[in-house]
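The following block was generated as part of the benchmark described in Methods. Ligand: glycyl-adenosine-5'-phosphate.
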Amino acid sequence: MSEDKKSTTIEKIVSLCKRRGFIFPSSEIYGGFAAVYDFGTYGVELENNIKKEWWKYMVQIREDIIGLDSSIFMSPKVWEASGHVSGFSDPLTECKQCHLRLRVDHLLEDAGIVADEKMSEEEINKIFDENKAKIKCPVCIASNFSEVKKFNLLVKSNLGNFTEDWSKGPVYLRGETCQGIYVNYKNVVNSSRVKIPFGIAQIGKAFRNEITARQFIFRTREFEQMEMQYFTNPEQEMVEYEKLRQYRWQYYTKNLGFKEENLKWHKHDNLVFYAKEAYDIEYNYPFGFKELEGVHARGNYDLTQHTKFSGKELSYVDPFTGEKYIPHIIESSVGVGRTMLAAICDAYTEEEINGEKRIVLKFKPNLAPVKVAVFPLMKNKPELVVKAKEIYDSLKMQFMCEFDDNGNIGKRYRRQDEIGTPYCVTVDFETLEDGAVTVRDRDTMEQKRIKIEELSSFLKENLK
Ligand code: GAP
């Protein structure tokens, strides 16, 4: 058996995701809807497993972190205070020949020129002008671009803002979930027993008018974020920051089982003015190492801004020392879709067995959409079907299971391999005699006989 990881391309991942019901383009029968995707049968299981694992790791096992679920619509003032109305933008240019709109920092990056979205319009125009001649439109290959403009990413809604003067501006769909955490900081302190240092975590949808739609679910216009904001004493900010960085690294390598060589830290050189330090955890996607998660030390910018714009006191009084200060915040922020894509790429394996290609998603069991598949050896033997159904009915109460009697056993194994099911259980004629089933391991393809009454404890032990 030979393994070939290098052959993983984004085209193969997209094709597998469509074929096996993980991910579909949105509104596909209408020709699709750019940069928006739907999750199918196995996609939604994987998505739920990722969220469940994150919540367990970030909330359930942490005495110092509690959960929140804030709304998507917020007062427009939140987005003024946060700086999103004035500064949440990406540099945009238009190809004058085919009118494609493009992100200038990405065009420059692809040409090997250092640039980022935080640069001012002036700065990025200067770099773009100096390098325009070497840059070509990826679609029509022309080299004729418009002046760079900063394009705001907030998505406007027409929700009636009945309590406010409508002329003051639109209501936005939230551009990040953490603003809901900041504006609830005082509510949480007043209603729970948390004391600094503590964190508030939430999972929820965010919306952005991303300029370019590319790289599958890596960059979408509607996506879910899993964010944790940790409130600290100013002196402790960087100590807690280092702890959080280590904690997040462990999550990917130990909890999700990602290969360490596919992960790396990227330190930001061009920091926003209030940030103390910013690192991203990058994943080695088929299109290269790209940001999976941001772990940033944000100083006291967020609560200072919300104090200023709301007029409400958001400082903290230490119950032991009486010290009063505006908490500093460190954050961990990651997209569900980006984690899903990393999980699928990390698990994707092509093997050659007896001259045939086997595609298998070697997910860590906690991420696998289906944990166990149960088969009767033959579809047309009622005694086998009844026994297999009986086993399926008892296992499905504990694990996400699938019953399959379609096609031959070989085909059923291939299908379960492609969705990453760790174990397949087959009921055959011997089962009716000895009360044992054949259990096949996804990764080694080894088969062993296990007594039906021992099946549940075997699976519990091996699906951790
Ligand atoms: N609160 C900080 C924040 O939102 P960000 O770097 O803009 O920071 C954090 O986003 C994470 O959210 C990213 O690391 C990525 O995982 C995910 N993310 C951001 N924009 C995304 C998009 N357009 N599509 C999918 N995921 C996205």
